[in-house]
């Protein structure tokens, strides 16, 4: 093999990432790569400026990719978002918002939704009887609760998470007595575990490396125009589909027959295919298993081997040199080579990362130009390892550091061998390395010094890359780069064996699935949202084929989304477009929109994913008895009873003309709430009329109300300070204690709604969060709180809250309370109404903070 | 001066605040930076200090430019760029400092690809950009010169580099020093081009001509300047192939063989330099031109063999080893051939196969069966699948019958008559190759290492 006779000048510096003193040549622009040094002058002066193809543009046929296959029958849920994991609301004193995991809310939700899991083990530990602490003077009868009876009470009545559930006296007693103990131990035990889980989920949200490499493969068939798409689908991605596709000369794919599928035992994370010496092989990576199939010429897969990876597999690659050989990486840091002759053999093991310490267990292995030499990669670098040499030795091919002018915090996300094993390929020694910032091409004969560096600037993790064959003789090879969020970039790599690889022309971005939204008909908001979510699903697979064509080369691009959708796009090469030809704007063809509408119709027929939390269902029979016993008269209880007996939802007509429950207080409706009126009018399509009306009114002699309004607005801004507190105190006297604690209807009387959160009202809104955090952090005793050195403006409100709360609890909770646990100590008055109704909430007072956050928008400003 | 001082201090501030930003972006624990973190935070952050309108419009404008560039919409990108220039007046000093670099990067890209742009426009832009801020002067000058060089405007490039060379600002940082060295080296390269043009002219002149003397005097002047310019940079670790090549050529021309050797030896063997195969190749070619002893050549190629066993010079290396008197060299000669054929890019190299077939026979005749067995033992479990499979037998015979015959001989010798490759080729009936195949069969029978007794 020939080595480039003259490499591009580069400074070589050793050192850590982000070494600031390196003159980073990547500061240079993409056109730097187009620059060539005249090798020797005579040649140059004769030939003039070497011609560089300036515009090599793949023109999409449609503005976005189109669905290739109908959506699967299983519902799909987009999963967690940042909103589920992070504290909402800003930190007013920071310039940049900081990431804070919202463990409190998650813990409270966990306790609501999975109370059985959270509390049952404790109950089991305590076995027969609970001996609850209490004053010595009290009799055994009041301090010992029988578990058997308690469970009986709970059976069929206690819906997890329903704040208005029926509670027996025993349960109430138990929860008041046991609340502090149960809450504390459960929160202690669970808190750490939950935090750990949340950290993991958040990291996964930032970077989900499970699908590194991509789970979509194009297996070429008998003729160059026919092939098979292999991809996972189904709600858990555990069905491996084999879909035969034929490419028309126009580039549009036609689906042949129904897809065949193989049911697997785990979600498919990566699908790799290679055709070596005429044999098509297919390797699949799941979380803990890897499997290898041989695909016959007829397209039938025959299983060859299944491997179990105990610690979890992170990557799999097929040898381009020897049929059936594959390399598997495990989270433990081991790399194994499986060959048909020798079976499984561990060739490398290092639990530590290569260059510097990085906690990620992600490992990757690929082949090199030598069939017995592998590359081993992790987040910090890539090493070349000879599988026949002594274990552990090798040479670093890529170092996350000053050698490649890496930035601070830069990590390897993907490495890929670009050679195909055939001696014809020009890049048989090149390796692609992608980080979150840049793309590097490294030649294995010149380790550490990248031959090419390009700052891709993708707004998501580039976990997918495909090097395609040249679309025509003498053309540069297209390199597809796919980000997790669907962004696609196409680069052209050129360079014969004796010259360095470089970019031919500027890289190009390709339309993503999001760009297809305009092809779908307009829907009502809920369905529209669903469609958008579906189109925004992460891209987990990328495949492309260049069918042989007579005229302009065509690129058929397939992408797989996490929802299991396969989209297709056809691109046409526009070599050397004229100087003025800008990429013409393409529009949707009627066929394309028809295709989209059809797909959408099928999508909307798929039932939506069941919500993660379902409303509690509970037995009502015993409750029904209670209601009947009391023999209450009137239409309302009758309707209620009838609905309960039938076990259906209570509806308005069952209750007849009920005194309409007052709506929850509107957000500070001024005397003349202009915005809501305008919105109302706009909603009814009479915005213009409203405007007319308003114009007429404001030009009239009604200046005074306006000023008045302005003042009230202003004052309402400030009202949150002092005056308001007394006001709400007046309007809501402490609700009288109700020993029966009847379930309260959802429509809480407005007076109490107002009372809620009024402690918070005394504090400027921007300080409420701080106060909450502060109070949540301090292991306050109740009395200690009074002396807490809070700013005077706050202490007053806290004191007010405290005192109110104390009176309340003195009234409600008759048994003496041991209130020295931080959780118990802090039950702000915002919860007063619910404390009454559901003493069970005291068990988990931690959640009160987040409950408040959720209610906040109702408060008005 | 006042202005530039404040610029400088701002730039110092910038470097620290950038670090802070880094700390902010990273997730506790992993230390990794996520460019998409901000996007996630924005979905939850409701409060906090909002970006100013100005910052919002400029960042939106920036993303429009980037999008237009990736869609090759140069015209549109240029229009957005026009608006983006307002970022230079950002009240946030951090952003204002980072702006020139971004503007240069995007602006030069637009001007490079824009169909209506020309060298004059590019020059004007580059000259303007050089003088905004102080940190980018050298980098922009260098890239500007490269642009001119690429467009064949050597004079202008030279003038640009000369200007940049003398530029200094504040305390000389090491990155500034490297940049100045690079600029000088490129200047040296330009001088080399001029020199080699003169050399061409000179070779066409008569030695007795009057013009010859002035021309050669000119050349001497040039060489002196060039050596100063090139010498400094190639001391710094890096890949300096074009510089080293031209420097050595000039040194050699003026008979400074020792100087040239020193430069090349340093370039090849200095441990601070990356292991660049070209460094060894240049040294080898130099020694060959110098007619250095075979021992010396072998020792240079031995190192190249360690770095790039697949290089085409390895066949030359094999020839040298074969000619050597030492037995260990003969053994190495076999090793080198096997190593070359290990690589995917060399599987169809007929010369290598020919050498191996011939050398195997020679080695076995010299009763060094152990050497062959040693090489073969590490390959016997994968060479048959890699080289000697039925698939390759068929395709090689179809594409290159001569290659197929050589390979079949090697296959037969190494893995016996039962080898599929050998069997397939030996069964072929072809007029031209009939004799060759017959001879091959005979040789395999005689030398195959599988049944040495027979």
TrEMBL record, chain A:
Q: Basic residues: which segments have biased composition? A: 852-861
> Which portions of the chain have biased composition (kind: Polar residues)?
713-722, 791-812, 828-851
Domain TAF1C helical bundle, chain residue ranges per copy: 529-722
Ranges of residues in domain TAF1C beta-propeller: 283-419
Q: Where is the composition biased (Pro residues)?
A: 732-749
Q: Which InterPro entries match?
A: TAF1C (IPR038801), TAF1C_beta-prop (IPR049087), TAF1C_C (IPR049089), TAF1C_HB (IPR049090), WD40/YVTN_repeat-like_dom_sf (IPR015943), WD40_repeat_dom_sf (IPR036322)
- Location of region: Disordered: 691-861
Any idea where the TAF1C C-terminal domain is? 745-807
Please give the name of this protein: TATA-box binding protein associated factor, RNA polymerase I subunit C
Automatic annotation (TrEMBL), chain B:
Q: Tell me where it resides.
A: Nucleus, Nucleolus
- Single GO MF descriptor: DNA binding
Task: Tell whether Transcription is among the UniProt keywords.
Answer: yes
| Matches recorded under InterPro entries | RNA_pol_I_TAF1A/TAFI48_chr (IPR016629), SL1/TIF-IB_Component (IPR052669), TAF1A (IPR039495)
Broad class of the protein's primary localization: nucleus
One Pfam annotation, family name?
TAF1_subA
Which stretches are tagged as biased composition: Basic and acidic residues?
Answer: 11-24
Keywords noted in UniProt: DNA-binding, Nucleus, Transcription, Transcription regulation
- Record GO biological process: transcription by RNA polymerase I
Gene Ontology cellular-component terms for this entry are: RNA polymerase I transcription regulator complex
In residue numbers, the region (Disordered) covers 1-24
Transmembrane regions: none
Q: How does it assemble?
A: Component of the transcription factor SL1/TIF-IB complex, composed of TBP and at least TAF1A, TAF1B, TAF1C and TAF1D. In the complex interacts directly with TBP, TAF1A and TAF1B. Interaction of the SL1/TIF-IB subunits with TBP excludes interaction of TBP with the transcription factor IID (TFIID) subunits.
Q: What does this protein do?
A: Component of the transcription factor SL1/TIF-IB complex, which is involved in the assembly of the PIC (pre-initiation complex) during RNA polymerase I-dependent transcription. The rate of PIC formation probably is primarily dependent on the rate of association of SL1/TIF-IB with the rDNA promoter. SL1/TIF-IB is involved in stabilization of nucleolar transcription factor 1/UBTF on rDNA. Formation of SL1/TIF-IB excludes the association of TBP with TFIID subunits.
Q: What is this protein called?
A: TATA box-binding protein-associated factor RNA polymerase I subunit A
Source organism per entry reads: Equus caballus
């Amino acid at each position: 093999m020939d080595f480039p006779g003259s490499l591009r000048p580069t400074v070589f510096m050793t050192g850590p990432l982000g070494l600031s003193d390196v003159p980073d040549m990547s500061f240079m622009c993409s056109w730097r790569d187009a620059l060539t040094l005249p090798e020797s002058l005579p040649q140059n002066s004769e030939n003039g400026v070497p011609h560089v193809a300036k515009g090599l543009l793949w023109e999409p046929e449609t503005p976005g990719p189109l669905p290739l296959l109908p959506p699967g029958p299983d519902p799909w849920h987009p999963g967690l978002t940042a909103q589920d994991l992070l504290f909402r609301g800003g930190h007013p004193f920071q310039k940049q918002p900081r990431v804070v995991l919202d463990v409190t809310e998650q813990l409270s939700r966990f306790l609501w939704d999975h109370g059985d899991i959270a509390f049952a083990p404790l109950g089991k530990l305590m076995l027969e009887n609970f001996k609850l602490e209490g004053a010595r003077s009290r009799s055994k009868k009041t301090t010992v609760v029988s578990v058997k009876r308690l469970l009986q009470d709970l059976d069929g009545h206690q819906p997890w998470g329903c704040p208005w559930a029926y509670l027996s006296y025993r349960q109430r007693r138990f929860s008041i007595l046991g609340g502090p103990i149960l809450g504390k131990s459960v929160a202690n035990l669970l808190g750490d575990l939950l935090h750990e889980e949340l950290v993991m989920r958040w990291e996964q949200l930032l970077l989900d490396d499970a699908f590194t490499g991509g789970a979509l493969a194009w297996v070429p068939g008998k003729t160059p125009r026919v092939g098979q798409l292999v991809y996972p689908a189904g709600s858990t991605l555990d069905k491996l589909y084999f879909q035969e596709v034929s490419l028309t000369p126009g580039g549009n794919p036609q689906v042949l027959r129904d897809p065949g599928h193989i049911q697997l035992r785990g979600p498919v994370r990566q699908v790799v295919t290679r055709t070596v010496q005429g044999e098509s092989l297919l390797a699949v990576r799941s979380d803990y298993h890897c499997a290898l199939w041989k695909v016959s010429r007829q397209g039938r897969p025959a299983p060859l081997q299944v491997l179990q990876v105990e610690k979890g597999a992170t990557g799999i690659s097929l040898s381009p040199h020897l049929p059936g050989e594959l390399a598997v990486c495990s989270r433990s840091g081991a790399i194994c080579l499986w060959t048909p002759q020798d079976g499984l053999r561990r060739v490398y093991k290092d639990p530590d990362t290569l260059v510097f310490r990085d906690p990620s267990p992600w490992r990757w292995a690929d082949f090199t130009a030598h069939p017995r030499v592998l590359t081993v990669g992790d987040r910090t670098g890539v090493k070349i390892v000879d599988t026949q040499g002594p274990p552990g030795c090798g040479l670093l091919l890529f170092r996350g550091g000053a050698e490649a002018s890496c930035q601070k915090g830069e990590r390897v996300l993907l490495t890929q061998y670009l050679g195909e094993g055939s001696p014809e390929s020009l890049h048989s020694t090149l390796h692609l390395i992608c980080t979150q910032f840049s793309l590097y091409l490294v030649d294995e004969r010149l380790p550490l010094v990248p031959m090419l560096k390009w700052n891709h600037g993708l707004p998501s993790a580039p976990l997918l890359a495909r090097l395609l064959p040249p679309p025509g003789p003498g053309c540069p090879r297209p390199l597809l780069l796919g980000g997790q969020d669907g962004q696609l970039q196409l680069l052209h790599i050129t360079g014969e064996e004796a010259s360095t690889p470089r970019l031919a022309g500027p890289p190009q971005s390709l339309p993503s699935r999001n760009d297809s939204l305009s092809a779908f008909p307009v829907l009502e908001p809920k369905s529209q949202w669903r469609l958008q979510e579906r189109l925004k699903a992460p891209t987990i697979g990328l495949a492309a084929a260049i069918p042989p064509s007579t005229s302009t080369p065509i690129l058929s691009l397939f992408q797989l989304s996490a929802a299991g959708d396969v989209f297709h796009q056809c691109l046409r090469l526009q070599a050397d477009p004229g100087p003025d030809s800008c990429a013409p704007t393409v529009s949707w063809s009627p066929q394309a929109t028809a295709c989209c509408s059809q797909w959408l119709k099928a999508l909307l027929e798929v039932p939506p994913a069941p919500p993660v939390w379902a409303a509690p269902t509970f037995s009502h029979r015993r409750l029904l008895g209670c209601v009947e016993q009391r023999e209450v008269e009137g239409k309302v209880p009758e309707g209620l009873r009838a609905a309960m007996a039938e076990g259906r939802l209570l509806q308005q007509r069952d209750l007849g003309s009920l005194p309409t429950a007052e709506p929850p207080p509107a957000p500070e409706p001024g005397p003349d709430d202009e915005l809501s009126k305008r919105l109302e009018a706009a909603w009814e399509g009479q915005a213009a009329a409203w405007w007319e009306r308003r114009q007429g009114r404001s030009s009239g002699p009604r200046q005074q109300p306006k000023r008045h309004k302005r003042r009230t607005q202003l004052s309402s801004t400030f009202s949150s300070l002092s005056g308001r507190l007394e006001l709400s105190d007046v309007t809501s006297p402490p609700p009288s204690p109700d020993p029966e604690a009847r379930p309260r209807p959802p429509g809480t009387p407005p007076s109490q709604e107002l009372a809620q959160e009024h402690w918070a009202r005394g504090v400027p809104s921007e300080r409420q969060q701080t106060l909450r955090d502060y109070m949540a952090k301090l292991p306050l005793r109740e009395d200690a709180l009074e002396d807490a050195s809070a700013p005077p403006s706050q202490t007053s409100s806290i004191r007010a809250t405290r005192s109110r709360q104390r009176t309340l609890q003195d009234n409600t909770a008759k048994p003496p309370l041991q209130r020295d646990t931080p959780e118990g100590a802090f039950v702000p008055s915002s919860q007063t109404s619910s404390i009454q109704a559901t003493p069970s909430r005291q068990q988990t007072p931690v959640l009160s903070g987040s409950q408040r956050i959720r209610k906040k928008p109702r408060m008005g400003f | 001066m006042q202005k530039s001082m404040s610029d400088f201090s701002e730039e110092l501030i910038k470097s620290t605040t950038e670090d802070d930003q880094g700390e902010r972006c990273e997730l506790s624990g992993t230390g990794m930076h996520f460019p998409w973190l901000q996007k996630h935070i924005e979905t939850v952050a409701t409060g906090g200090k909002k970006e100013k309108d100005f910052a919002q419009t400029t960042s939106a404008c920036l993303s429009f430019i980037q999008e237009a560039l990736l869609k090759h919409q140069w015209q549109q990108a240029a229009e957005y760029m026009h608006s983006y220039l307002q970022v230079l007046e950002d009240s946030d000093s951090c952003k204002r400092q980072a702006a020139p670099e971004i503007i240069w990067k995007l602006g030069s890209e637009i001007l490079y690809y824009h169909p209506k742009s020309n060298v004059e426009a590019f020059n004007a832009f580059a000259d303007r950009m050089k003088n905004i801020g102080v940190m980018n002067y050298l980098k922009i000058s260098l890239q500007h010169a490269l642009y001119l060089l690429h467009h064949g405007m050597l004079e202008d490039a030279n003038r640009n580099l000369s200007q940049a060379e003398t530029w200094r600002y504040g305390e000389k940082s090491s990155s500034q020093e490297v940049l100045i060295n690079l600029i000088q080296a490129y200047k040296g390269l330009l001088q080399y081009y001029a020199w080699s043009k003169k050399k061409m002219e000179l070779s066409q002149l008569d030695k007795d001509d009057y013009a010859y003397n002035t021309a050669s005097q000119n050349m001497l002047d040039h060489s002196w300047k060039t050596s100063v310019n090139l010498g400094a940079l190639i001391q710094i670790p890096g890949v300096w192939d074009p510089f080293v090549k031209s420097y050595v050529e000039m040194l050699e021309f003026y008979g400074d063989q020792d100087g040239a050797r020193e430069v090349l030896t340093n370039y090849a063997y200095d441990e601070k330099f990356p292991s660049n195969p070209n460094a060894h190749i240049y040294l080898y070619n130099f020694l060959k031109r110098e007619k250095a002893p075979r021992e010396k050549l072998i020792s240079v190629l031995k190192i190249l063999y360690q770095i790039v066993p697949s290089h085409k010079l390895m066949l030359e290396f094999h020839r040298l080893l074969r000619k050597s008197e030492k037995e260990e060299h003969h053994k190495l000669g076999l090793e080198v051939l096997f190593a070359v054929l290990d690589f995917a890019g060399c599987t169809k190299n007929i010369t290598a196969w020919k050498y191996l077939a011939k050398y195997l026979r020679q080695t076995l005749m010299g009763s060094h069966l152990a050497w062959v067995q040693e090489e073969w033992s590490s390959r016997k479990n994968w060479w048959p699948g890699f080289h000697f499979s039925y698939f390759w037998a068929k395709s090689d015979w179809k594409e290159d019958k001569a290659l197929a015959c050589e390979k079949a001989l090697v296959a037969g010798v190494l893995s016996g008559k039962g080898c599929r490759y050998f069997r397939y080729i030996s069964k072929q009936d072809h007029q031209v190759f009939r004799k060759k195949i017959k001879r091959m069969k005979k040789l395999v029978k005689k030398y195959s290492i599988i049944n040495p007794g027979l």
